[in-house]
């Protein structure tokens, strides 16, 4: 019994850190636990959350994807460019955005798997290229005047839950299912845990890697669609630094950067910690300079609590 | 005749503060158009939001032996060495849009004073609120020259209105999403709020979206700066109470003209202010 | 059907050539394997055994030659393809998924599933059956990283053997497992053979080779020397063909008379690993630790080396009590440890031979300022690697590209340079060929003659009995019995270590 | 002979890529190989180069330092705040900057070595904290009016070589010497290559790690001093994204992100490739958006040429 509690703690230490954060915030700010604010947190977390689910695949694969922020922007402007009112039905911009994202991810995966170049450097290249492509595509200007049906994706509610939150939840379920219940998921863990051993076991790791990065790209594209529809414009300079937020969520959630270990559940907690932190510090009106220090400390603290076994 | 015209063709190097900013792109458009019109060869580089890049780029201009330099400074202090380099190498230099501390050493300046933009926005809000109310301020990136100066202008006005209080104050990094999320969070505190001053339109539009979603559009005024197309539309629809127009095209065209004149040895006016203009529902069409 | 069936040739490798930058690993090698045959593949370290088998398993491309499988020429593209063709392999180096469970490891790459969705039900059933077949008392839900090296090796064997392959390749499967576990393995191999499975078995242990193989193939320097029926050859002949000269006596005569006690350990305990260990080691003595998998031998020597330190107990070196809280302290007290797993804890594989050899003793080659005297460093490294007969064309070569046995010699070399007073050897001859083994035994003898004392962990009973002055038997972390040289008896020692 | 040429190529493949870049640029732009332009490139490379030398230590240690950009900024503002004319002799701001940088690096190293938390997340935390500290310290405003003697560091020449370039060269020599000729350097490789084996060899890896990160911090501080003196002001928002440039230089230069392998020489080539690219594309007047695409492609290409053996 006692042992089980200990196991739970050491496995879900990050959950404790999260709870502590929640408790502190709700004591400090009466507005924090209100329904609308909880929805705010979830909605604000959803974009990073969607990206972070994709990042989880990539990091379990012992890789990393620095390009997600730029790919998000590229997908956002491509999608938005098909979303002007009266031009195409709403599924066209959605498919265009998802395709753009997946394609970038696919290319990342292809180069990493086939040329055996460090994911860090490949996706760093893609980060610059996708950003440049977004700027060239739009000439540097945001794509504006989007159709109402497109803008609904980010702005409307279903049963008083914001649509981005619903999309996020669906992504979490599918991602979690893929990783934990399918052969592909096992191969992701195997490839990331020990690539040589995976190959020796007859797993075609290049396929797994390509698919993993494609998923990350797909989800970055999806996040780009949600984001552009939420702010009703597709900006080529959006999404900067999102890769770091996503990686932070994944790592705070206990996924190891060296690969082979990790869960979507952890990632979600990680993303929520970041979301709660951003929201709470704003509620408390902590000065933006101090916010940065506090955020850095909370991240370190959360990870330390988690790793202290 | 071709060789002849090439020989006399003027080359001008221009370094922009950051070409991911729509306002700066507008300046670029005007500069390019004017350059075509005056048959000037233009070498354009992007500082990407880093003063040190601008210094490097001007050093590169010297290797290309440009005839004149136009500087659109990112940082009023950090970009200042550009002017010193131009002076040292005896290249005419025109500063455009934003200022540098050693502006007097430049041959000409075209632009608007960012403090002025802040003053105009804050004054208009003060007027609409009758000098009373709670304000949220969304700043540009910390330490950016425009953020510093616009904040100074805003504070200058607000300090003269003791009943106007800034209750929220954060940086939104010129970004619409950040403006949106800041506002969502502030609104959930339930504190009474009368107006939002955003230091650019993107952030103002984000904040406006959050206010609209919360149904408090009637109670909270939002003002931006820059007058980008999306913002003008929002002003027309009454979603933003106003924006402050800065004449990017006018600045760009004039700066290039002055640079050409300097190359030709003609005299020019040192300081050329192009005033800001408040755009409200009344004058938005013009 | 009675196997081997010499009328049915399942595999032919014809004139295989393979070279790596700077080395010819295989030079015109021919190999024939019959249905239901167990063929041993032997040869010195670096002879090309693993290379030949890795080609068969789809890991390496070969430069020249043909492979005929069941009468058809094939081009083996990759590991996956090899599996499809019915070839499974247990690799020389451990290669598993430390963060996955035992069951997941066994099924990696062939997970039971319906339309891509895992079927844990099926997996748990199957895994229990496999573990039972192999008499493995391991919880299939345990994480791989929690297993001892030998348990890991057993899991890998179980994995390969449960593949339903036609050809099973085993590259030194017993180098890290106990004799008892090896017995289970032989039983399994025999039952596979009865089903018509063919096995290629690489080993440096001659007794095993004679026990289980139908035929024996010898490689030397990448060349095929001979293939002969096991019944038609003998130990001396094999050794002669393998090393190219007359064999020497494997275990040298020990003539050292142990002197004063240099290491004295009292009531050492650490967690679940070992309890109340008391032992002493005298000058010039070789003391052996015998035990089964998980008996705590490795943990004991590691704790003597301070990695991690024991929780209770006293360690005395040269009669003085010492606090060994880290390997550095241990080294300072003249102790050296050759660890059990060279890949995991012995070597920086990507670095050069020179780098690895001088790592613990760098200070000795450096000025006070920390600047390394490179010439001195190099000459010492050259000397020691010649002394140990390390086969490398260049001290700058990356250790990664050396054969397993040569890697082991590097680990030993690096500690010999430190001129320790007490040498802790954990499975020092794992994966080393018979020639090198004999060299290492000679060396141990020479070291003890010079007054160095050795504490050796080994799973090879004849090695312990051949080299040690005394043997301490361990049973689940505690000392069960001590044997003096005159009391050495295989049966009795085995009885003392069996649970 | 042939074999040696092959070895050279496979070892210095990146040099080939660099030469190719140089040739292409000098064909395309007559100004490229002028003495002043070469000095420009060197001066522009020096800041990233100095940071990248420190990053090389950290990456060989199988770590990473995302905080260098922020630490650079913090050191810059701290140094600048002591550099007002007539207040202190010039060595005071220099020491203050170096100390600040080293301290941040020391803290990074301490947490990484002692708490065994992934360097990525520790330095991500430090990245935010140091940035916040720089903003709090300066109240978000640049520190201006620096003394002439301080400004000389970034602006003056010795024997017509810019001082930043001289500093850079000294850093390269010392860094290279430390790594290749000293016991400490060997311990860096050993710790990064196989930590367990290093510990069993008697190396106190935590000390090596702490020292390695301190060096990275020290050099980030040095770069901050050079940069602030070059722009004659200490801005708290400077140095953003420098970590990626430095990591790119290191990885392009053949240092493995998994640790244990790498050289300062490679890093310098990597930094020069980035510097030449920035300079050359500006000289060629390539549009800023297109530049990003081209830069991404060149990075990928350079690494591919290098890894093709
Ligand atoms: N990847 C590689 N790159 C370069 N050389 C290699 C590589 N793999 C093996 N070699 C070399 O090929 C030769 C044969 O090595 P191999 O591993 O086949 O020997 P082995 O017979 O299995 O020896 P051991 O008994 O020590 O395992 C050796 O000289 C080795 O150094
Ligand atoms: N109760 C336990 N819980 C977890 N692991 C255990 C337990 N008991 C034993 N082990 C594992 O067994 C191993 C102990 O074996 P150790 O390596 O010390 O034995 P050994 O006699 O040297 O065996 P060998 O060297 O043959 O593997 C350790 O790896 C340890 O993780
Ligand atoms: Mg082998
Ligand atoms: Mg052991």
Please render the helix and strand layout as text.
The complex is a heterotetramer, with 2 copies of chain A (309 residues), 1 copy of chain B (286 residues) and 1 copy of chain C (499 residues).
Chain A: H1 2-11, H2 13-28, H3 35-60, H4 68-81, H5 91-115, H6 119-138, H7 148-155, E1 157-158, E2 161-162, H8 163-181, H9 183-193, H10 195-200, H11 205-231, H12 242-252, H13 264-283, H14 288-307
Antiparallel strand pairs in A: 1-2
Chain B: H1 2-8, E1 11-16, H2 22-38, E2 41-46, H3 51-64, E3 68-71, H4 80-88, E4 93-97, E5 108-111, H5 114-128, E6 133-139, H6 145-159, E7 164-171, H7 176-188, E8 195-198, H8 201-213, E9 221-226, H9 229-236, E10 242-245, H10 248-263, E11 271-273, E12 277-280
Parallel strand pairs in B: 1-2, 1-3, 3-4, 4-5, 5-11, 6-7, 6-8, 8-9, 9-10
Antiparallel strand pairs in B: 10-12
Helix pairs in contact in B: 2-10, 3-4, 5-6, 7-8
Chain C: E1 5-20, E2 23-35, E3 38-43, H1 49-56, E4 64-69, E5 72-74, H2 79-84, E6 87-90, H3 102-107, E7 113-114, E8 117-118, H4 120-133, H5 149-161, E9 167-171, H6 179-194, E10 198-202, H7 206-212, E11 215-220, E12 223-229, H8 235-243, E13 261-270, E14 274-282, E15 286-290, H9 297-304, E16 312-317, E17 320-322, H10 327-332, E18 335-338, H11 342-346, H12 353-358, H13 374-387, H14 404-416, E19 422-426, H15 434-449, E20 453-457, H16 461-467, E21 470-475, E22 478-484, H17 490-497
Parallel strand pairs in C: 3-10, 3-11, 6-9, 9-10, 15-20, 15-21, 18-19, 19-20
Antiparallel strand pairs in C: 1-2, 1-4, 4-5, 7-8, 11-12, 13-14, 13-16, 16-17, 21-22
Residues 49-50, 92, 171, 403-404 of chain C line the site of one magnesium ion.
């Amino acid at each position: 019994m006692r042992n089980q509690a200990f196991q739970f703690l050491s496995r879900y230490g990050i959950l404790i850190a999260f709870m502590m954060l929640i408790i502190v915030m709700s004591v400090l700010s009466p507005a924090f636990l209100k329904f609308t604010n909880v929805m705010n947190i979830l909605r604000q977390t959803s974009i990073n959350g969607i990206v972070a689910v994709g990042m989880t695949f990539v990091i379990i694969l012992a890789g990393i994807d620095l390009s997600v922020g730029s790919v998000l922007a590229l997908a956002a402007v491509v999608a938005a460019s098909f979303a002007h009112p009266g031009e195409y039905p709403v599924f066209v911009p959605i498919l265009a955005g998802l395709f753009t994202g997946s394609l970038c991810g696919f290319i990342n995966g292809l180069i990493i798997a086939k040329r055996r170049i460090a994911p860090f450097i490949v996706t760093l290249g893609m980060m610059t290229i996708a950003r440049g492509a977004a700027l060239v595509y739009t000439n540097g200007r945001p794509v504006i005047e989007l159709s109402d049906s497109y803008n609904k994706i980010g702005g409307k509610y279903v049963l008083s839950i914001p649509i981005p939150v619903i999309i996020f939840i669906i992504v979490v379920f599918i991602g979690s299912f893929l990783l934990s219940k399918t052969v592909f998921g096992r191969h992701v863990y195997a490839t990331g845990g020990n690539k040589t051993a995976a190959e020796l076991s007859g797993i075609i790791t290049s396929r797994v890697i390509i698919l993993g990065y494609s998923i990350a790209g797909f989800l970055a594209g999806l996040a780009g669609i949600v984001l552009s529809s939420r702010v009703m414009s597709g900006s080529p300079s959006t999404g900067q630094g999102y890769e770091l937020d996503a990686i932070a969520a994944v790592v705070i959630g206990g996924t190891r950067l060296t690969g082979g270990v990790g869960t979507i559940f952890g990632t979600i907690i990680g993303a929520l910690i970041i979301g709660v932190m951003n929201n709470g510090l704003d509620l408390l009106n902590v000065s933006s300079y101090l916010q940065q220090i506090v955020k850095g400390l909370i991240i370190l603290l959360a990870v330390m609590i988690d790793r202290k076994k | 005749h071709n060789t002849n015209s090439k020989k006399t063709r003027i080359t001008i190097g221009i370094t922009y503060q950051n070409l991911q900013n729509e306002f700066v792109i507008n300046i670029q458009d005007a500069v390019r158009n004017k350059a075509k019109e005056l048959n000037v060869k233009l070498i354009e580089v992007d500082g990407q939001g880093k003063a040190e890049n601008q210094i490097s780029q001007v050093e590169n201009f010297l290797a290309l032996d440009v005839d004149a330099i136009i500087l659109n400074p990112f940082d009023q202090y950090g970009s200042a060495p550009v002017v010193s380099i131009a002076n040292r190498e005896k290249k005419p230099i025109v500063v455009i849009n934003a200022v540098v501390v050693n502006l007097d050493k430049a041959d000409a300046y075209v632009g608007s004073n960012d403090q002025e933009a802040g003053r105009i926005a804050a004054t208009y809000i003060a007027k609409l609120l009758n000098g009373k109310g709670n304000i949220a301020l969304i700043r540009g990136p910390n330490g950016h020259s425009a953020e510093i100066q616009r904040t100074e202008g805003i504070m200058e006005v607000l300090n003269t209105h003791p009943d106007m209080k800034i209750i929220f104050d954060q940086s939104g990094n010129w970004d619409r999403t950040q403006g949106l999320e800041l506002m969502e969070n502030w609104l959930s505190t339930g504190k009474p709020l009368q107006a939002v001053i955003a230091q650019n339109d993107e952030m103002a539009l984000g904040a406006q979206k959050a206010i609209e979603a919360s149904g408090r559009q009637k109670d909270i005024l939002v003002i931006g700066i820059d007058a980008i197309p999306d913002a003008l539309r929002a002003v027309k629809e009454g979603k933003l109470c106003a924006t402050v127009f800065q004449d990017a095209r006018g600045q760009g065209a004039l700066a290039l003209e002055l640079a050409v004149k300097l190359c030709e040895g003609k005299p020019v006016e040192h300081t050329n202010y192009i005033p800001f203009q408040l755009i409200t529902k009344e004058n938005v069409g013009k | 059907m009675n196997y081997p069936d010499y009328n049915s040739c399942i595999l032919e490798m014809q004139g295989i050539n393979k070279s790596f930058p700077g080395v010819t690993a295989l030079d015109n090698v021919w190999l024939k394997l019959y249905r239901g045959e167990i063929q041993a593949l032997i040869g010195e370290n670096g002879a090309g055994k693993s290379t030949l088998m890795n080609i068969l398993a789809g890991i390496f491309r070969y430069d020249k030659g043909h492979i005929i499988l069941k009468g058809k020429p094939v081009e083996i593209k990759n590991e996956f393809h090899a599996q499809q063709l019915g070839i499974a392999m247990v690799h020389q180096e451990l290669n598993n998924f430390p963060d996955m469970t035992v069951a997941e490891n066994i099924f990696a790459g062939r997970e039971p599933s319906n339309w891509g969705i895992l079927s844990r039900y099926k997996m748990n059933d199957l895994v229990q059956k496999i573990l039972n077949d192999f008499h493995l008392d391991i919880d299939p839900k345990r994480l791989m990283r929690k297993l001892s090296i030998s348990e890991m090796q057993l899991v890998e064997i179980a994995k390969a053997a449960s593949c339903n392959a036609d050809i099973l390749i085993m590259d030194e499967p017993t180098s890290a497992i106990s004799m008892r576990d090896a017995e289970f393995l032989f039983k399994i191999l025999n039952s596979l053979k009865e089903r018509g499975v063919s096995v290629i078995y690489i080993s440096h242990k001659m007794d095993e080779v004679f026990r289980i193989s139908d035929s024996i193939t010898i490689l030397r320097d990448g060349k095929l020397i001979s293939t002969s029926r096991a019944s038609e050859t003998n130990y001396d002949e094999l050794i002669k063909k393998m090393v190219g000269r007359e064999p020497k006596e494997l275990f040298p005569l020990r003539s050292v008379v142990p002197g004063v006690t240099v290491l004295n350990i009292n009531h050492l305990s650490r967690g679940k690993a070992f309890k109340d260990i008391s032992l002493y080691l005298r000058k010039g003595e070789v003391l052996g630790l015998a035990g089964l998998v998980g008996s705590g031998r490795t943990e004991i020597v590691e704790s003597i080396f301070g990695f991690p330190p024991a929780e209770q107990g006293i360690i005395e070196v040269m009669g003085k009590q010492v606090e060994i809280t880290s390997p550095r302290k241990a080294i300072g007290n003249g102790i050296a440890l050759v660890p059990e797993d060279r890949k995991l804890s012995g070597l920086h594989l990507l670095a050069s031979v020179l780098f690895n050899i001088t790592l613990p003793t760098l200070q000795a080659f450096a000025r006070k300022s920390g600047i390394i005297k490179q010439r001195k460093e190099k000459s010492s490294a050259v000397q020691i690697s010649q002394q140990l007969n390390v086969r490398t064309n260049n001290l700058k070569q990356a250790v990664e590209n050396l054969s397993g046995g040569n890697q082991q010699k590097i680990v030993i070399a690096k500690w010999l340079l430190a001129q320790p007073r007490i040498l802790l050897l954990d499975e020092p001859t794992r994966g080393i060929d018979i020639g090198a083994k004999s060299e290492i035994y000679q060396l141990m003898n020479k070291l003890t003659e010079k007054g160095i004392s050795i504490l050796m962990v080994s799973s090879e009973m004849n090695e312990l009995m051949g080299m040690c002055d005394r043997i301490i038997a361990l049973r689940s972390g505690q000392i069960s019995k001590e044997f003096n040289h005159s009391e050495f008896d295989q049966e009795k020692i085995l009885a003392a270590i069996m649970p």
